[in-house]
Write a structure and sequence with these properties.
2 domains; seven-stranded mixed β-sheet; FAD/NAD(P)-binding domain; 309 residues; 17 strands; binds NADP nicotinamide-adenine-dinucleotide phosphate
Amino acid sequence: MLDLAIIGGGPAGLTAGLYATRGGLGNVTMFEMGMPGGQITGSSEIENYPGQSEIVTGMDLMSNWPEQCQRFGLKHEMNQITTITKEGDTFKLSAVDGKEYEAKTVLMATGSVPRRAGFKGEDEFFGRGISTCATCDGFFYKGKEVAVIGGGDSALEEAVYLSKMCSKVYLVHRRDTYRAAPSTIEHMKAASNIEEVTNVDVEEVFGDMSGVLGLKVKSKENGEIRDLPTPGVFVFVGRNVLNEPLKQEDGSFLCDTNNAGEVVVDLKMQTSVKGLYAAGDIRIDAAKQVVCAAADGATAAVNIIEYLG
Ligand code: NAP
């Protein structure tokens, strides 16, 4: 019987693991299929993590976190939890490989995955010219032209990153104002090889057997269609939370969620079910920042220790 099962190994899960083990819980396991570190490891430039005055990659930022947690006894199980149920006071966890686990408390720290934009060709060319990770795939387009779709922090930050290696970046956005932070907009505007293509809808991404050849965008002002001849298209249109493990047999969720499927928590990161906590991007009103996810994880762990008495 685990004292605490942490689902997800990003900043929220790792920090919860650190605080829970260092705070005295003896049997804490973090379930994470891949390398711990979370979605931030796909970010290429981070300049707002407190104390980190140099711009670093997400990979660099997260590199020491797992080792620090494991020093205090956090166990890492490379398994994917598919379902969480509660029977009496015990949580039952089922994994994709058929293994079952029991835990007194559970922390959902599964975060989110990139959202699809929904244009024609997106599924067909995903992984063959369409990407959601500039750090992973930008290199393939060195010296070439690429398009970035979206108008939030991710799209603009990654457009700036790509502008340093690509000959030109088309920043394609459906409105003419951006959601990104003012300083990020400034960086984007300062890059001479970023062309803003705003107030447009992406009609389709087209290509052939070799991959993407370009995209068609349609002006919202006059309906004009323009072809952007780029072999690479990077999509950053927001994220969907990973709440699948909370789905019960009857289709309901184990705990309260909002319309977007985000988990409802109180200030202790406690959900509507006793002993079940949520931290990071999966919870309601998450600021979706590494520092906030980490803080959520610490808050949850402190309260889990108190709950277990
Ligand atoms: P986001 O802020 O939700 O922005 C998504 C962008 O995609 C918006 O501009 C949106 O357009 C556009 N969009 C959404 N659906 C679309 C569709 N179907 N077709 C075309 N465009 C579409 O997402 P994000 O940039 O991934 O950021 C998520 C959160 O993480 C935010 O809270 C952000 O502040 C945070 N974040 C922070 C940092 C940082 O602080 N360094 C870095 C990355 C992300 P509209 O604007 O018209 O809705």
